[in-house]
C-alpha cells in the first residue's frame, strides 16, 4: 500500500471526513511532511471507492458547492489493520537491528 | 468567476467526463479551499487527469477484449499474424543461409541464435493456433516477440534506427501475443490459404533479385489483404482494428523520428539514443491508435443493421 493511500485510510479511521478535511488531517498527522494535493487525493479516493475500502457517508452543499464526506468500510478497516500490522512488524525488526548495531558499535569503541 | 477558479476548471477539463461529473465540483471546492496555486498543483492535476484517462482507456480495452466478438477476431489475428511472422522469420533465416552459400567467407555468426529462436517461436505459435492450444500459442508468440525485440537491439548502440525500422514488426508481434492470450479457438479462419500464399511469397521475396523485391512484397501484401477480406464479416472489422497499431507505427517513425535518424546519419561520431519521452511515444501511440480504432469500430457496428452487426 502506498503512503498516500495508507494516510487517507488512517484519516478516515478517525471518522467521516470531506476532501479538504482529509488533506488537513494528514498534514497534521505527519507534522506537515505530507500535504496531499487535490489530484493525488481524489485519485486515491476514487480508487479506494472502486475497491470498496471507503464509501460516501453523506453530502452537503456549503457555499453553493458540493461537499462529500467519506467513511471507512469494513473492508477498509481490515485492509488498514493488515497494513498497520505489516508496518509494525517491519518497524520492530528495524528497531531490533538498530539496537543490536548500537550495542555492537558501543562494544567496539569501548 | 475568480482567476484561480477558471484556471482550475480548465485543468479539471482534462479529466474524463465520468470523473469530472463525479468529483469535478467537489475537487474545485477543495482546490479553492486549499489555496495552493503553483506549478506543483498544475502538475499534480495534469498527472492525475492523465492517470484517470489511462485507467479508463485500459479498463475499456480489457472490457472490449472480454467480448466474444473480440475473442473470435483475436483468433484470426493470432492465426494470420503467427503465419506471417513465421514467414518473415523464415525469410530472414533463408536469406542468411543463401548468403552463406553464395559467400562462404562472410561472417554470419551474429544471426544464428536470435533468428533461430524467433523462427522456432513463431513456428510454435502457428502450431498453437492450428491445434487450438492456448499455452502453446502464447509461449510461441512470447518467444517470437522476445526474438523480434532482441534482434534489432543487438545493434542499438551503433544504429538505433535499426530498432525504429523493426518497430512495426515488434508491435505486430506484441499484438499477436495479446491476441493469442485472449482468443477462443474456432475453425481455421476463412481466407487462410491466401495468407499462407502471402507467407510463401514473402519467403521467396527475400531470395529474389533486388528488382523483384518491391513487386513481390506488393503481391504478398495483396494476398494477405485478400485473406482479411475473405474473413467472416462479423470479425473482419475487429481484425482490422487489431492491425491499426501496427499501421500507426509507419507514419509515427517516418514523421516523428525522421530528424532523429537523419541526425545519426550525419553525426556518426555522436549517435543519439532513443530518449525516455520518445520511448513513451513509441508505446503510447500504437496503444492509443488501437483505442481510437476500437471506438470508431464500435460506433460503426452500432450504425449497422442487427443482422450484420456480428458477435
Automatic annotation (TrEMBL), chain A:
One Pfam short name: PadR
Domain Transcription regulator PadR N-terminal: 8-81
InterPro entries: Metal_resp_DNA-bind_regulator, Tscrpt_reg_PadR_N, WH-like_DNA-bd_sf, WH_DNA-bd_sf
Domain of life from the UniProt record: Bacteria
UniProt-listed PANTHER family: PADR-FAMILY TRANSCRIPTIONAL REGULATOR
Protein name listed in UniProt: PadR family transcriptional regulator
Species name: Paractinoplanes toevensis
Automatic annotation (TrEMBL), chain B:
Keyword annotations of the record: Membrane, Transmembrane, Transmembrane helix
Originating organism: Paractinoplanes toevensis
Keyword match Phosphoprotein: no
The name this protein goes by in its record: LigA protein
Regions crossing the membrane: 75-98, 119-146, 166-184, 191-208, 214-232, 239-257, 277-296
Amino acid at each position: 500500500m502506498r503512503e498516500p493511500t495508507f494516510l487517507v485510510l488512517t484519516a478516515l479511521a478517525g471518522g467521516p471526513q470531506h476532501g479538504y478535511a482529509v488533506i488537513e488531517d494528514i498534514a497534521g498527522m505527519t507534522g506537515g511532511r505530507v500535504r496531499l494535493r487535490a489530484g493525488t487525493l481524489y485519485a486515491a479516493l476514487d480508487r479506494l471507492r472502486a475497491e470498496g475500502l471507503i464509501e460516501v457517508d453523506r453530502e452537503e452543499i456549503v457555499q453553493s458547492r458540493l461537499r462529500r464526506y467519506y467513511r471507512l468500510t469494513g473492508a477498509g478497516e481490515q485492509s488498514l489493520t493488515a497494513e498497520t500490522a505489516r508496518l509494525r512488524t517491519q518497524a520492530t525488526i528495524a528497531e531490533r537491528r538498530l539496537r543490536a548495531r548500537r550495542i555492537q558499535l558501543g562494544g567496539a569503541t569501548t | 468567476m475568480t482567476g484561480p477558479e477558471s484556471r482550475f476548471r480548465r485543468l479539471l477539463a482534462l479529466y474524463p467526463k465520468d470523473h469530472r461529473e463525479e468529483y469535478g465540483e467537489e475537487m474545485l471546492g477543495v482546490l479553492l479551499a486549499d489555496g495552493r496555486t503553483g506549478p506543483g498543483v498544475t502538475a499534480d492535476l495534469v498527472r492525475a487527469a492523465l492517470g484517470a484517462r489511462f485507467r479508463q482507456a485500459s479498463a475499456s480495452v480489457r472490457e472490449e477484449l472480454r467480448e466474444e466478438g473480440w475473442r473470435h477476431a483475436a483468433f484470426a489475428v493470432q492465426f494470420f499474424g503467427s503465419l506471417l511472422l513465421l514467414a518473415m522469420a523464415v525469410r530472414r533465416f533463408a536469406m542468411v543461409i543463401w548468403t552463406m552459400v553464395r559467400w562462404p567467407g562472410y561472417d554470419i555468426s551474429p544471426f544464428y541464435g536470435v533468428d533461430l529462436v524467433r523462427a522456432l517461436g513463431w513456428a510454435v505459435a502457428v502450431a498453437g493456433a492450428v491445434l487450438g492450444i492456448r499455452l502453446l500459442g502464447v509461449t510461441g508468440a512470447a518467444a517470437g516477440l522476445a526474438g523480434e525485440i532482441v534482434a534489432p537491439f543487438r545493434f542499438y548502440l551503433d544504429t538505433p534506427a535499426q530498432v525504429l525500422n523493426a518497430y512495426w514488426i515488434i508491435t505486430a508481434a506484441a499484438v499477436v501475443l495479446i491476441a493469442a492470450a485472449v482468443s477462443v479457438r474456432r475453425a481455421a479462419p476463412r481466407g487462410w490459404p491466401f495468407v499462407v500464399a502471402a507467407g510463401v511469397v514473402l519467403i521467396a521475396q527475400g531470395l529474389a533479385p533486388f528488382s523483384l523485391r518491391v513487386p513481390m512484397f506488393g503481391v504478398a501484401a495483396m494476398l494477405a489483404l485478400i485473406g482479411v477480406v475473405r474473413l467472416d464479416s462479423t470479425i473482419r472489422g475487429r481484425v482490422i482494428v487489431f492491425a491499426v497499431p501496427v499501421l500507426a507505427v509507419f507514419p509515427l517513425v517516418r514523421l516523428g523520428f525522421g530528424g532523429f535518424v537523419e541526425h545519426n546519419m550525419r553525426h556518426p561520431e555522436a549517435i543519439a539514443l532513443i530518449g525516455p519521452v520518445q520511448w513513451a511515444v513509441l508505446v503510447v501511440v500504437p496503444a492509443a491508435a488501437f483505442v481510437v480504432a476500437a471506438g470508431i469500430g464500435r460506433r460503426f457496428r452500432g450504425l449497422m443493421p442487427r443482422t450484420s452487426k456480428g458477435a
